[in-house]
Design goal:
317 residues; alpha/beta; Rossmann fold; 7 helices; disordered C terminus; metal-binding
Amino acid sequence: MLLVHAHPDDEAIGTGATMAYYAAAGGGVTLVTCTLGEEGEIHVPAFAGLAAAESDQLGGYRIAELAGACAALGVRDHRFLGGAGRYRDSGMMGLATNDHPRAFWQADLDEAAGYLVEIMREVRPQVMVTYDPNGFYGHPDHIQAHRVAMRAAELATAEGFGPAKIYWTAMPKSVLEAGLLAFADSSDNPFAGTDQADELPFGTPDAQIAARIDGTDHHAAKEAAMRAHATQIPDNSWLYSIASNFGGEFMGVEYYTLAVGAKGPGSGPYGWEDDLFAGLSLPAQATAVAADSSAGEPAAVVVPTPPVGTPAEAGAR
């Protein structure tokens, strides 16, 4: 399995349970991150001096955070696209940072895809996971990650080793609607000001969802991975607040649409797959994911100590 993400922490928030689920089962999981996340908004004052407007060291620092997250998820194979620092975080859409000469948003598509093809040539993924054409919510680096991943898959397929199935991360509208209802009266409402799921920049009709991966046994690993990204996700994040109220199901269940390949056997009213490898013939050395697979205790995560003497002002994306 190959996952293509834009920034450090995207892997934990969007696909952490899935990665932990397959890694615990002994499957090959390769993570490719396209940037170092240099323009990330810093929520912890102790880390503010790392910001792009200060020392511009956030990207390098986040390499260590990502290593901690991968350890928590049990993922041993992680690469940066083209090497660490080849492409820079572009910042949110419309900002001047989109025009930085190394911004991922400005990357030559075939050149960037070529770096990914080299990884695919080595690991030969049967399944690839990335974002939809809107990058799930419109961030330029997420959109570019989608473009690069899909172009690389096209090139690899032409050479005979493209992935058999390609999934895009998704969130069913029924889940969003349930969240709107559950948190309508909450003081920590992540959907504040939104009444309808259609008002959000993401959300997929349930009938278009192809797979639901139940990694609830691995929710602790996902939470540990998120906590490893301390510059981006503070201890008082609404993500942890919701997790404490809804537990493993909130942290552990992740959804996907199928962009390339044949849908395998599924269940429920829409025939959702419960395995991203459903319908594929696995290599002889691979073992099927057991229904009762468990991640056990998450790997120990070492989060770097905040730098000494940093300014108090928080950075801004």
